[in-house]
Amino acid sequence: MSYKLYYALGSASMGVRVVLEEIGAPYELIQTTIDMDKPRPPEQLALNPNGWVPVLIWGDNAMYECAAITIFLCDRHPEAKLAPAADEVERGLYLQTLVYFSNSVQNAFQLDYYPDRFADTPGDEPSAQRRGIRRLRETWQVINDQIGDNTWVLGDRFSAADIYLFMLTTWLRPSRGQPSSDEFPNVRRIADVVMNRPSVQLVYEQWISERKKNSS
Length: 216
What we know:
- By secondary structure, the chain is of the alpha+beta class.
- The protein has two domains: 3-80, Glutaredoxin (3-Layer(aba) Sandwich); 91-215, Glutathione S-transferase Yfyf (Class Pi), Chain A, domain 2.
- The chain contains nine helices and four strands.
- It has helices spanning 13-23, 42-47, 66-76, 91-113, 125-147, 160-169, 185-194, 198-203, 205-215, and strands at residues 3-7, 27-31, 55-58, 61-64.
- The chain has a four-stranded mixed beta sheet, covered by helices on one side.
- The radius of gyration is 17 Å and the shape is globular.
- The model has no long low-confidence stretch (mean pLDDT 95).
């Protein structure tokens, strides 16, 4: 089965692309944008009226929301071993973590990056941004504490939850007042290992190159 993915650099579609690489399924990228001042393709809006990515297409079917797509792909391709099966003990933690990433951590990013969605007036937007930054620290601390001494998010097994974690760490911008991943050593430890995977090196080549340049 081949897939099509509405895709934009810097978006959650990059995490889905890593999953597709890990699965080894053929896919086609359909370039779009996350720039709010630029129009989205009408075909994309027909599938996701919100205008967001990722949007995954297979055959005559389509779906959006990164966590949902991740769960769908991992369940559809169990041979990739990116997710616990429904009857495995880690399944609950896997689902809990992906939903927390989507509903809590990503929401905190939106408060800072898109404060107009949460404020009644432009004058209220700085307050939303400040709350978003505080919320980022709160939510990342929850994940950091959850990981503890585990090798991976789910314990001893690598999963799509680790890919999702890495993706979210690439959005952190300390220059905006957001926390650095250095504040969360367990998160940083896993993200650094995930970054070395061939799938991540391919998808995040530009981000990794810029990171190395900025740290030199």
